[in-house]
Each structure stands twice: as structure tokens, then as C-alpha cells.
UniProtKB/TrEMBL annotation:
<dbReference type="InterPro" id="IPR033749">
    <property type="entry name" value="Polyprenyl_synt_CS"/>
</dbReference>
<keyword id="KW-0460">Magnesium</keyword>
<dbReference type="Pfam" id="PF00348">
    <property type="entry name" value="polyprenyl_synt"/>
</dbReference>
<dbReference type="InterPro" id="IPR008949">
    <property type="entry name" value="Isoprenoid_synthase_dom_sf"/>
</dbReference>
<keyword id="KW-0479">Metal-binding</keyword>
<comment type="similarity">
    <text>Belongs to the FPP/GGPP synthase family.</text>
</comment>
<protein>
    <submittedName>
        <fullName>Polyprenyl synthetase family protein</fullName>
    </submittedName>
</protein>
<dbReference type="InterPro" id="IPR000092">
    <property type="entry name" value="Polyprenyl_synt"/>
</dbReference>
<keyword id="KW-0808">Transferase</keyword>
Length: 330
């Protein structure tokens, strides 16, 4: 599970059973009376994925009753919401691959990919309605933040705004918000003690941003497939990820390599040769270490938020996730 180091055997068994139940309900939830809708909806489900958000729901539920009736449906709600957002993201980014397979928009076209994402959002709403009005309100607020983050990313930072701070705010909305909700859902649905939900929500947002920063580094310096996308995808599409933002901030106009890197970043990276040159220059740039330092800070902050929780196997596993997020892009 996400390459976690060895954890408490009873906890591992509980998580494994929970993830199996999540997978079963997830596949049931994306089924439709229309065969094509089922096929398109299962496209990303069948491609796999880390199931990071459902795992966090299940870990959060360990602080209450992990077998409570609402835990698995809540885990499926957050995964359906995440999958739906990926269908929409791929259309906006014109991404050819997702999770190592052709993206839904590449396979079915933009219109059907968008409608499939809408279908998954609807199925998530159907499930969350059975979890109570508080869960519905939380899901609505989370959805609002997802959309707000996408809008803020699309319109770029306002004049005078620090691009790095703007980017981190975007990540908090686009990625952190749903992972934060995963922690709160798990605490709520399991009946965890008062205050645990706030701790796990804060942890979820921080580890969510750290997870995306790790993906940013994988796009530049990782191995193809580890982030679920082809290497250099964000770079080619002109997405201003953290290493790129630091490269622009740290660029030395007297350094020929820095000058060339900026030329490439501002130019056309559609050719493999141009992309490889840009990747090589960026990998050797001090911007990558600056991005790694930011990642370590966000992961450390996530770990620090767990201090109020009891010292139980679930907390140890959550702490281990902080290490995994840093090490996966090292």
C-alpha cells in the first residue's frame, strides 16, 4: 500500500480488507444501464491508481470504529470525486496518458470525457447523500475548492503575486482539499473522538500538497510511470510546476545554461529533442533542490500536526506516509 514500510499486522489486515471493500463498491458505483457509460467510467478505475484518498479515509477511521457503516462509502465518495476531476483535468490539459494508459479524452473524445466525469460526480453525490447533511455540506465545500483551484490555476497569478505562493494556494485547493476531506470523512464516519477530525483534516491538506509537490519532482527527475503520466508531461504542456517556478526565480542571466533553459521553457517543447534538452537542464539546476526542500517542509508540517493524536499504529502509519511522499521522488 503506497510502499509503506512494515506496519502493525492487525492494522495492515484491516486496511487491506477495507480497500477490497472500497474496490468492490467503486466498481459497482461506476456501473450504468448503458454499457458505454460503464466502459468509459471504468476506464480510469481499471487503470489502477494509488487509492491514496480512500486509504486516508480508512486510516482516519482507525481512531474510531473502522467497521462503521459509512466508512467504505465515504472512501468511495472521495475516490469517485478524484476520478471525476481527472477526466476533466485531462480534457483541459489535452493529456494523452493517464496512469500509463491512454487518457479518456484521447480514447473517447473531449465531450464524452467531460460527461463521464460529470457522471462520476453524480454518483459521488448519490453516495454522500446517505452519509448525512454534514457530509453533503462538506462534499459541496470541497467541490467548490476543487473548482476554485482549477480556476485560479487557469487565470494565472494576479500582478504582483508571488508565483510560488500562488501555486501552493492552487495546490491546497486542487489537491489538498479533497485529501483533507478524506481525513475528516474517516473521523466522522467512524465516530472518532472530538478533535480528531480537525487534526486529520489539517494533516490531509498538508500531506496532499506535499504529494503533489512530489509528483512535480517526478515529472522532472523521476521515472516514467511513477506519477501516472509520461515523464515531462507538465513541462511539455507549460504547466508551471514548482521546479519550473524556482528555475525562473533563480535564473542567472549570466549563466548560458540558465538562459537556454528559459528559452526552452518559453518556447515550443512539442519535439522530443527540445523536451529532453529542457529536462536535462532542469535536472541539473539548483531549482530542483529548492523544490525538494519545499517538499520536505510540507511533509514535516504534516507530520507535526499528528502530535495531538494517541500513539497508536494508525498514527505511526500516517507518519510513515510523510516519509513515503518525500522518498518517492528522491
Amino acid at each position: 500500500m503506497l510502499g509503506l514500510p512494515p506496519i502493525d499486522p492487525e492494522l495492515e489486515a484491516s486496511l487491506a480488507q477495507g480497500l477490497d471493500e472500497v474496490e468492490e463498491l467503486l466498481r459497482e458505483s461506476v456501473s450504468s444501464s448503458l454499457g458505454f457509460v460503464t466502459e468509459a467510467s471504468r476506464h480510469l478505475v481499471d487503470a489502477g491508481g494509488k487509492r491514496f484518498r480512500p486509504l486516508l479515509v480508512l486510516l482516519a477511521a482507525q481512531f474510531g470504529d473502522p467497521k462503521a457503516a459509512g466508512v467504505v462509502p465515504a472512501a468511495v465518495v472521495v475516490e469517485l470525486t478524484h476520478l471525476a476531476s481527472l477526466y476533466h483535468d485531462d480534457v483541459m490539459d489535452e493529456a494523452p496518458l493517464r496512469r500509463g494508459a491512454p487518457s479518456a479524452n484521447a480514447r473517447y473524445g473531449n465531450s464524452l470525457a467531460i460527461l463521464t466525469g460529470d457522471f462520476l460526480f453524480a454518483r459521488a453525490a448519490h453516495l454522500v447523500a446517505d452519509l448525512g447533511p454534514d457530509a453533503v455540506r462538506l462534499q459541496a465545500r470541497t467541490f467548490e475548492r476543487l473548482i476554485t483551484g482549477q480556476i485560479r490555476e487557469t487565470i494565472k497569478p494576479p500582478e504582483g503575486t508571488d508565483p510560488v505562493e500562488h501555486y501552493l494556494d492552487v495546490l491546497a485547493d486542487k489537491t489538498g482539499s479533497l485529501i483533507a476531506t478524506s481525513g475528516r470523512f474517516g473521523a466522522w464516519q467512524s465516530g472518532a473522538p472530538q478533535g480528531v477530525d480537525d487534526v486529520l483534516t489539517a494533516y490531509g491538506e498538508l500531506i496532499g500538497v506535499a504529494f503533489q509537490l512530489s509528483d512535480d519532482l517526478l515529472d522532472v527527475a523521476g521515472e516514467s510511470g511513477l506519477s501516472g503520466k509520461a515523464l515531462g508531461t507538465d513541462l511539455r504542456e507549460g504547466v508551471p510546476t514548482l521546479p519550473v517556478l524556482h528555475a525562473r526565480r533563480l535564473a542567472d542571466p549570466g549563466d548560458p545554461d540558465d538562459v537556454r533553459l528559459l528559452e526552452l521553457l518559453d518556447g515550443d517543447l512539442s519535439s522530443d529533442a527540445a523536451l529532453e534538452e529542457a529536462l536535462a537542464l532542469l535536472r541539473g539546476h539548483r531549482a530542483v533542490e529548492s523544490a525538494r526542500a519545499d517538499l520536505r517542509r510540507w511533509a514535516a508540517r504534516a507530520r507535526e500536526t499528528l502530535a495531538p493524536l494517541p500513539d497508536v499504529p494508525a498514527r505511526v502509519a500516517l507518519e510513515a506516509l510523510c516519509e513515503v511522499v518525500v522518498e518517492r521522488s528522491a
